[in-house]
Fold this protein.
Amino acid sequence: MSEYSAPLKDMRFVMQELAGLGQVVSLPGCEEATPDVVDAILEEAAKFAGAVLSPLNRIGDTNGAKWKDTVVTTTPGFKEAYRQFVDNGWNGLGCDPEFGGQGLPRLLSTAVSEMWKASNHAFSLCPMLTQGAIEALMIAGTDEQKAAYLPNLVSGEWTGTMNLTEPSAGSDLAAVRSRAEPVGDGTYKIFGQKIFITYGEHDMTDNIVHLVLARTPNAPEGVKGISLFVVPKFLLQADGTPGERNDVYCVSIEHKLGIHGSPTAVLAFGDNGGAIGTLVGEENRGLEYMFIMMNAARFNVGLEGLGDAERAYQRAAVYAKERVQGAELGVKGGPKVPIIKHPDVRRMLMSMRSRIEAMRALAYVVAAAQDNAHHNPDEAARKRGQAFADLMIPVVKGWSTESAIDIASLGVQIHGGMGFIEETGAAQHLRDARITAIYEGTTAIQANDLIGRKIAREKGLTIKAMIGEMRAAAAQLDGDLAAIGSRQSAGIDALDKAVDWLVENFSSHSKAAHAGAVPFLYLLGIVAGGWQLGRSAVIARARIAAGDSDPFWPAKLATARFFADHSLTQAAGLAESIIAGAAGTLAMADDSF
């Protein structure tokens, strides 16, 4: 079974040529990311992903986390790999140097994160949740909380979790019923049960820092009455080290379709008198703070989709080159050939590869926008970066994960009957990818956020500016790239038309607008992905014209052309579904289903 190999050439290309690495590393606070440093980090991350994490991926799938008497034992090898991960400094790559991090740009940490997710999705979830806890405490934690928890979270000596969901409160967080009773000195006792808690219990570190949503006694109903609390697995002693066990226990872990190496815990808080926690920020602003974690997690789940898709593509491409079956079309009586010679297998591989390249480019460009939002000394540039990132994070999450499911399914199809057999490994990528479109907000939640908070609320201001950039880029697709330019321009027109309709109808025809929300997210993902691949094609053409014979450049032209002919052509139909599709969606009576 083949192991993961990081696509470093494409990663470097996207970082440098599309995401503007040179501009990012010129920002205040990002100067340490010199070309030599970036190359060294990418090379070492690729080695760790391929040699340490990838071999554990299959083991995690077949021999996942185990629970017994509140104790969770992770997959054999995970604990040792995590120790290497921490000792090598990977956990603090993009974290604040004040608390022991390396302070490197989001663009670089995004590329490294893709490698973790592609090589071992289940393992990568643990540091991902820790990063979310770090961000929430950085922004909303007290000085005491930061001093107590951040150094060990940043180093990875401790891990963090996000506790939202309850048995009766899934995506509807207004239904959260966990309670927090004040006991003085800013301390609370937490009572309740949380479900679907990723790495809520494990044996890889000596403490776990839970961030928990709960209600104080006089809290108002609904989301406005939710507060956020830090609840460690082990209470801290005076010297800051773990001491007495807190009253939070894992009562079971879920039996899941995929990501078996990642323990998904059911946590009980306060069954023995109350779990001790401290308030994060102000009372009743917990959901606001938790969304700091959620936004970071949503972007990273989009990277999970990208990683799962890349791994599925690599496995399928290797199989297609090795599997010999049938003669080549048009060669009568010819020898049996590898199935990569067959047109439909090539179509599937090109569909996988072109979408992966579009997903990667879009994610990295959004990462660079986040770097500008945080570090650019120009206020207007910071605002533009933040607005673009806010607009596109639902797309990176929703479109990338939905695409990953389809791409992983194509990987199974390329394997034929062997794809349905677990031993080939193709099925794992499909099973692992399936959750990505659900957790941290389903695709519909991403889409509703996109059309409501990100487009209708500001009357399309940010997306219209982006459409202007898209049109300028499409204008460069002339001459031998005119076919790509034509498809791109048609896609932009469809997107522009759908945006106008949404802005006009969001308030007056709310149900109709929301019926088209997911198709709109797909539309924006496809057109934005095509925008980035079009930019790639222009660069590739220039390199070829300058005499560069690297086969990387013709391959870039091929993927851009395929995406234009097979993905961008969907744009017009999606726009029609958005504008006119609500009639069919909403017409049938409930009892008729």
